[in-house]
Design a protein that fits this description.
Distance between the termini: 106 Å
Order of helices and strands: EHHEEHHHHHHHHHHHHH
Number of strands: 3
Shape: rod-shaped
Helix content: 55-70%
Radius of gyration: 34 Å
Strand content: under 5%
Strand order of the largest sheet: 1-3-2
Oligomer: single chain
Number of helices: 15
Structural class: mainly alpha
Length: about 300
């Protein structure tokens, strides 16, 4: 405190009282958030008790991560501490989401041993906006059904509801799944494969009631699973009777082609990724049951 009876403090004394450096206090003064009360005859900045309290508030706000612009707004009365805190929370939330995306991309790069080009693509896909993610999925589904009027409504409705994006607070696993899903649905070969499945469905609609194309393969899988549990061999006469029960006079070779198209490994992975991004348990794949039905159909088609 200067010895003139005013009770004012020099910048050095203020630094000593607060534990801050002279350089920091001088910088905040230069930025207009801590204005000196006056200056001494020698031109030194002088501060009072109110300056001390103001300095403590500045330090607190800065330690909480607020920029000088927000600090200045609080000190001038333009914004309350609560308003600034709310804005800062929103900014931190955005930063945390960005860090989660970065972590997920780096984790995927490390696991895959990705090249620089793959890393760039993954980072781009992971950072797409919600609208961009939605557009990718909608374009994929639109291409699947383009020009087809006879698709089973139950399947079409389910497919059109999959315009899935990342949740507001995605886990690293969800970001990872989204990146793989986005790569998959933009792959021309996978799109052609999915289109083929939908075309099979459309071709069946003239001969089936709505929902039958969904029911039919699942009925085969259900019966095949029961037969498999009983130890029935796919090539046995009993297996042939089970297949005939569902097929009737249908061509086993044509049904086999449809079953093989729908039980492909990439399609199974696609369904699994959708569940991971949505954060829901994956549906049962019934891989062993599908394999039994396919083997039974092959045996009958060959016969």
């Amino acid at each position: 405190m200067i010895d003139d009876g005013t009770g004012l403090l020099t910048i050095g004394e203020l630094a000593k009282a607060t534990g801050l450096t002279v350089r920091t206090i001088r910088y905040w003064s230069d930025e207009g958030v801590l204005t000196p009360v006056t200056r001494s005859a020698g031109g030194y900045r002088l501060y009072d008790a109110e300056s001390f309290a103001r300095l403590e508030l500045i330090r607190t706000l800065r330690e909480l991560g607020l920029g000088l612009g927000h600090v200045r707004a609080v000190l001038s009365g333009e914004q309350s501490v609560a308003e600034v805190a709310a804005a800062h929370v929103a900014a931190l939330d955005a930063q945390i989401r960005s860090l989660k995306v970065t972590r997920a991309v780096l984790s995927t790069v490390a696991r895959r041993g990705s090249t620089a080009e793959e890393t760039t693509l993954m980072n781009k896909l992971a950072r797409l906006s919600a609208a961009e993610r939605k557009r990718i999925m909608e374009e994929f589904v639109a291409e699947l059904f383009h020009g087809l009027d006879a698709v089973d409504p139950a399947i079409e409705e389910r497919m059109r509801s999959i315009a899935v994006g990342l949740p507001e607070e995605p886990t690293p696993e969800q970001v990872d799944a989204w990146v793989e899903l986005a790569e998959l649905v933009q792959d021309p070969q996978f799109r052609a494969q999915m289109r083929r499945v939908v075309e099979f469905n459309a071709a069946d609609q003239g001969r089936a009631a709505a929902g039958r194309s969904t029911w039919f393969p699942m009925r085969l899988v259900q019966l095949g699973g029961q037969a498999r549990e009983r130890g029935v061999a796919p090539e046995s006469p009993e297996a042939e009777a089970i297949v005939r029960e569902v097929l009737g006079d249908g061509d086993p070779a044509a049904v086999l082609e449809r079953m093989e198209s729908a039980s492909d490994g990439r399609l199974a992975r696609y369904r699994q990724l959708l569940c991971e991004v949505k954060g829901v348990p994956p549906a049962a794949a019934h891989r062993a049951e599908f394999a039994w039905v396919v083997a039974a159909l092959r045996a009958r088609a060959a016969g």
